[in-house]
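note to self — DONT lose this again. spent like an hour looking for the file last time. sequence + predicted structure for the chain T wanted, 366 res
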Amino acid sequence: MPKKTRTKSARRAATAKKSAKSKRERTKAKLGSIPKRPDAERRLRQASKAARVFKVLELIQGRGRWNAEAIAEELDWDVRTIYRDLNALELAGVPWYFDRQQGCYRVRPWYHFPAINLTPDELLDQATATAVTSVPGLKVGSGTQATTAKMVVGSSDEKARLLADAQQLVTALDLKLADHSQHQDIIRTVQWALVEQKQLSGKYESPYHDKPVKLTLHPYRLCLTGQAWYLIARAADSEQPKTYRVARFASLRAIEKPATVSEDFDLKDYFGNAWSVYRGRETYDVQIEFTKEAARLVTEITWHHTQEIKKRYKDGRIVLAFRVDGLEEIVWWVLGWSGRAKVLGPEKLRQMVVEQLETALAMNER
């Protein structure tokens, strides 16, 4: 009798085990049919959620009066999302509470959100970066201002005052950069396409075409050079990358196609010895003599990575030497020193300078 009972129990256990295994297999098959979200998209959503939660913390830890409805209106979200964000803050250990007298959320005054322990010098560097990236040509999105504001919220009173004072006292003015205030969305699109390794599609207003050119691009790099933002990218129908000025894109969007970028691409090798942005095919050794009055001014700045003081005269004159790929850009720089600089070589550059000066004289004759 006991033997028979054990046999029934074993059969029931085997049946239950088989049923559980079958259920797991069905669940696994069902989950396998659901397309997985790309890692880049998942990271982007997580970052967006984290930024939203930090924004709520920034508001309730500030000086204003914020209830759920006011926060939702300020950030253009629904109230239920705000409650979820408040719960996330509570789970993270942020001691917020609802002040019934004031009718708003508050954070306990003794609490500061854990932040990187920055030194005073590092805080000054952050304030300087905030000032510099506020300049029209450098500002992309909110620049570093949003980051600095979050650092103020998470810092001690002393460090917060240092950041605030430094931002008021450090300013960047008139850097002679191209104004990209109308192209911030395009710059941001390029940034995300580079990070997520996606192709770009858009219309480019080339100075060599009457109408905008439709392009599909594999983005390589985004760089600030020659006083403007440039995209280094390879057209889908080309084997070599080219330089595109960001301000000339009439439209640009990322497409769901993977970008292909050569693993051995090097930005310094790409630009070579170009004077600024566009690299010529022929290399030239350039020597320019500067007057005594211009010598100190011209040597205060490194104009090119090949720059070298070739000779110093007793009367204060100097000779600067450069090695450049192409003369089309350096000629305009030389013209800016008219009356204070003499081209010693090459002869082709000297002739280019003379031609431009003669044209300028003819245009300004009365």
